[in-house]
Amino acid sequence: MWGFLLCHLVALAEPGLNPKKTYEYRYEGMVNIGRGMPNLAESGVRLVCKVKIIGVSAQTFLLRVSNLNFEEFNGIPGKNAFDTSPKLTKRIAAELSKPFMFEYAKGRVGDIRTSAEISDTIVNIVRGILGFFQVTVKTTQRVYELEEFGIHGLCQSTYANEEDANSQELSVTQIVDINNCKKKAAIYRGMALAVDNKLSKERGDSVISTVRYVYTVKPTVDGGLIKKAHALERQHFSPFNVKGGNSKLQLVLLSVTDTVVTPAVGPMISRGNLVYKFVKVLAQIPILMKKLDDPVPKIADMIKRLAQANIYQTDSATSEDVVVLFQLLRVTSLENHEVLWKQLSGNDEHRRWLLDTIVEVADARVLKFLKNRFKAGDVSANEAGQTLLIAFNHVAAETDLMEMEFLSMPFSKSHPMLWNTVVLSYGSLVYRYCTYEYGQSCPVAVVQPLLDLVIDGLKRNNELDMVLALKAIGNAGHPSSIKTIRRFLPGVSATPVTLPARVLSAAVQSLRHLAVRDPHSVQDITVSLFVQRHLPTEIRMLACMILFETKPPLALVSTVTAFLLEEADMHVASFSYSLIGSIAKSSTPDNHFLSTACNVAVKILAPKFGRVSYHYSKAMHLDWFNDDFLIGTATEIFMLKNAASFIPTEIVTKGKFHFIGKILQLVELGFRADGIKELFRQNIQVFNGHLSYADFEAIFKVLQDWKTLPGDKPLLSAYTRIFGQEFFFADLNNDLIQSVIKTVSPSAGKESPVWSMIENLQNGMSWHWTKPFLMFETRYIQATSLGLPVEISKYYNTLTTITVNAKAAISPPLTDRLGQLLTSDVSLVTDGFAGFSKDQFVFHGINTAIFQCGAELKSKTVVAIPWEFSMKMNVKQKTFEIDLPACKEETKLFSVKFDVYAVSRNIEEPSRAKMTPMMPDSVEANKDIEPPEQRYLTSGQKLCAEANIYGAVFCVEFEATRSHYIDEYPLYYFLGYTNFACTIQPVQSNKPVDKIHIEMNASPTKYTVSVRHLLDTLDGSIRTFVPSCTPPQAWNGNSEPVFTIKVLAMSGNTKPEGYEAAAFYTPAAQMDNTQLIVSQIGEEANWKLCTDANVDKVRQEQLKMHLRWGAECQSYEMSMKTATAHLPGSRPTLKAKIHWKTVPGLCRALFTTVLAIEKYIPGMAFLLGFYQKHATNAKHEVSASVVAATGGSIATTIKVPDVGNTLALVINLLFIHSIISKTHFIKHYNGL
């Protein structure tokens, strides 16, 4: 009996609807995007309507919406209000008023059906309404957890029930953890090349979202009746702990009546269940709202307009329109693309704009368009390579993209660089495809063409084909490729392998992505390679490098450590030890456990390898990470050598960026020197590795024999990877070098391409290049309880323009060889422009096809470098002249401007679009609502350096407004207006300036500045400055200057004004003396700068310099001196000293600024290993000494007067702290 009663009570409370009744509810859904703090602008939308649910059958119900009102908000909460949008209300109501059928039983919403013409946006809004009816009520438990489907996907829900004894109603609270969803209604696009890292994610995720539903349920004979409900969804940017947005929903039961007549409905189709559906959502770019009907004429017109606007220089006002062009192209069909090609390909400018922008269609359509171009052959190899490279790396990888046809098309092989681009880009496409679609279970068919290519190259023993295919396989990172890669690795392959070192290197490096995707398999392979001592040294070091990319556990690191203790190859030992030691100091989350293991290994290996010479192979890893912002960077440099040569076999440098649980590999550069290494191994006779004059002589002699190498053997190879994907590699071989030398040789005649270039210059040449490029587009979109998609997107678009106009004259003209240029007068007149406009957008908010609201950061960076000048030169006479026009108008060379806005847009009423600065324009107007914990910081400054003589002034302008909250400062610091600009402006001068004349003359001199002298001077000057008060050497006024430079302002027939610099070189038996004299030219001008430097030939370890400037070089004076010492029985020592007598007011102002931050330096010094004590030091003197304390450390002593503290110490902290063993810092308190 009790069991029956309990079941009956459960049935009464379990949500249900009576198929014979009609339920009417009032529904309100609201979302606002902002920071949730007073006095900051926000945006939002609100939807209010009545909802009728009519029973059709036992488990089928009809939903109809009426009395709809759609409102938008844009402004400051408490000051502004929601505004109704009549046209958008009408459009939404037209669809929402159509009938929707859904299945419902026991608190579960099933299949949703409606007519085919209803948009996905409207269906998702209905899902938000029906989400209130998806609830599980258990009267037998007060608190319970369930995994159930909802609008956010299959997520974890926590319930809590409470019964009201008076009303007999249940209060049900449901908390949905949106971050804990197995099948989350969310998509991530644009970050396929960023590696997810579990340890990094544990420190914090990009978005944290939770939803709380509260229901009032009344038990009835038909089941639990939901009388009212409300929901609150919150989003947080976790790294800053800053609120990002709220969604609020409310449902109130108005009436329950008997159904008289069930309304008739037309044909319906299934639209899926309650889970939010993403359909064509990526087509709508969130930072703009444009009507996209009839796109072809709009695209053609926009391309023509943009091409014309940027025909000479970058028009920064139009750069944002490029994003509009991308949006239009994304709604066109393949047939539209062909129409556009026929219309625009006949004009070079329009053709280039179409090819550069159509790649951002970013799906199968653009690849089919490119296939048509390849088949027709109506693009050049250069155009095809550029377009295909970007298209393959920007396309959203889908099943129908992996057609592989590009690899078999004849046009793809028409040019070697195009073929390389096709193969490498296909590998990148496979990587993206597997990341998005399959993960670890990616089908082998997509990578099979690359596996076939490499096996074919192996069978034909074609080194270049094997290297290219292995590089593409490395780009793909497909788990099924490991079996094929093994065939190229000795000791790992089932059959013996004898392959060139370059192929082996490519095979090992092809495991780099698999180190993350299949670390255990890669560990087995790399350890096997590492322990084979008969293998080439380079291959073993590369294996070690890849091994540590897999983040090996402590046991494996211990195995490597034990093996290294017995290692005889010092290059392998040095490389491995330096890599382990660098990782031991790592602070990034991905190395959290590995750095601990490496710390243990370092302690074991240090006694044997702690003082290995720098001549051996090295690896270096430097990184930092900030736990508050969850960002960090890492830099790695690898130098691989072997015992056969001092020339590195391979040099690799790479950078990584850590951000919010992801790791993005930025730029990686690699160089191989097989040919150069072979050349030096065969021919070098004397080389001690000290980079002395004798070493340089030996190197130059060897390089003269480069022709002895085979024509097809590369002297140098290089590659570039961006975001972990290799997109370029090239070889510099004997044939290429000879071709270049032959082309530019003085004996080259009219057959040389340089000859035709010179002819074009004489006839007048004009060249123009414009490149629009979407550098990145990243989008994260997830469902909200309201049925609207919330999105976090980042866009970075660039528009680059280069224009060159030039005309040359040669007298006497060339007749038969290029060498005649060296004895001719050459003049050139040119003008042009080089610059770019970079637009960056960050959007957080609601983005649909019909309306948008959110927070948007807009940033624009502009660089503009125009030029116009004439030039004359004569190589034989060593004369060079340039004439520049006077500055007539303001030119903005560089500018950065950004602000954050609350934005609202809707497709029906474009004129209602609003962009309100998140910080109000007037702080004073809002004092009444400003909280005490908030403060505004507004600053502006303009600094100018005038050159009155030349009629120009260079200015730097900075303006910023910031809002700080004490408890949430990190993100809020970026909210506000910022403007920074560098400009050149005309300024009133004493005389009107017609032009600026620059003249350089390297007159013949009886003293020849030889290469040997240059090397000796360099060797003396790099040792560091140590001051001296000795008087300068007197220079001979009758001696010829080595060179002179004049920069003069020309003004009609009056005497020019400006500056002249002359350098003198006077050798002597024991000391070489060099002087530099800078003089002002003009009436009554007496300012001069005199510099005297000398190197002691007997004691080359000593360098002295004396500096005087002012009226006739008499106003101010400073001297410097450096010296090194390494006496028998003493440690190598470097000493430096700077001494001054008088300094100008500008220097004193700088010293005052330094004093303002001086108090922070002792703390920095202590943290970095310095200590401080007080001692006596010269009043106007800074001195330092560096002593080689041990083989791996130095001891530094710095003595400064009070004002010199910061400058001297910071220099040493930046460049010396990483190797300091013991350092002390001595400070003097006598001031200037």
Automatic annotation (TrEMBL):
GO terms for molecular function: lipid transporter activity; nutrient reservoir activity. This is Vitellogenin domain-containing protein. The gene is vtg3. Pfam families: Vit_b-sht_shell, Vit_open_b-sht, Vitellogenin_N. Disulfide bonds join C155-C181. Keywords: Disulfide bond, Glycoprotein, Phosphoprotein, Signal, Storage protein. Residues 17-651 form the Vitellogenin domain. It comes from the Eukaryota.
